[in-house]
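Objective 1b: paired records.
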Amino acid sequence: MMFDYNGKVALVTGAGSGMGLATAKAFARCGASVALADVDGAAVEAAAHELRSEGHKALAVTCDVSKEDQVAAMVDATVGQFGRLDAAFNSAGIQIPATDAAEETGDTYDRVTDINLRGVWASMKHELRHMRTQGSGAIVNCSSLGGLVGNPGRSIYHATKHGVIGLTRSAALEYAPRGIRINAVCPGTIDTPMVSKMVEAGDLDLEACIAALPIGRLGTSEEIADAVLWLCGPGSTFIIGVALPVDGGWTAQ
């Protein structure tokens, strides 16, 4: 899907692979200058190089979103390079193997929360600091179906994704009067490296998963990118504080 982002600046975290990478490429190919951020610096540098070779403006930033000082530097680097910030997709996140709630460890809780929830909070915080000066901008935070429902064995992951929706809704209400829109996407099961690893580890039954989807297939990273670019663009200017399922109909059942 094509959108017009000419003259706009976008920032994407988790842009080294999967949904983040697809969204960064979509922003660039729709005309935006794009900052690609990921803890895997080599991956985002390669992606940025690919985009620059196509004639796009792209900046690679190595960033661990669980570290607020790195997040602040990431946003400052984006604005320093391109002069402003119009759109952001806070996509960085991790998944862990299903675990009995009584067996989960504090270290695991801290790691997942630091990346999936604190990382979104810190990214949004520093993006807003620039956008509020402009009086404009759009942010999309990446939640999950795990932010809308529960699932045995995944209490920590789902807690963080529920938390992302809470952050999104509260900040959306705070910043809507200031010209900034904040929403969330809730991807279903998407064909990404993360899902592939879950299947390889025996942590996800792919056939059963597909059978449970009304659409009869996994989603693609590009379909998430389409949703993000729509939420950040002029076609959704009355959409505020939404947690949008992009799930092939799973939550409609």
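Objective 1b, second protein:
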Amino acid sequence: MAINYRAFSTSAFYEDLGIFRLIQLIQHDQGTAHFIEDYLSPLISYDKEYGTELLLTLAKYFELDRSKKLTAHKLHVVRQTLYHRLEKIKKILDFDFDMPENRLNVEIALKAYQLKQQVGVPAK
């Protein structure tokens, strides 16, 4: 199964993919699906039920190094809307994703989810 690594890295070299090298190796592992489910399923379900894009908001927030100003700009919303969304996300996930360990787990789950979506592997 071919993966478009350009979606995750500007480099054409496999060695430059970082965490995606590990995620790619375990993408079909059931444990990966459970990991994604543990950290993201409430948010994925909420987005589906209410037609929101909170998962996208969170992904963009982490992608932009948690810069609220840049995230709001990229999402074309005012900062107050972004603050509201981030608080909603924390409430839905029921933990503070700004704490280092939680943040790492959520970021890895997001990357694994994105990779699974790209290759068409459903993440429960």
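The chain has one domain: 17-118. The domain at 17-118 is CATH 1.10.10.2840 (Arc Repressor Mutant, subunit A).
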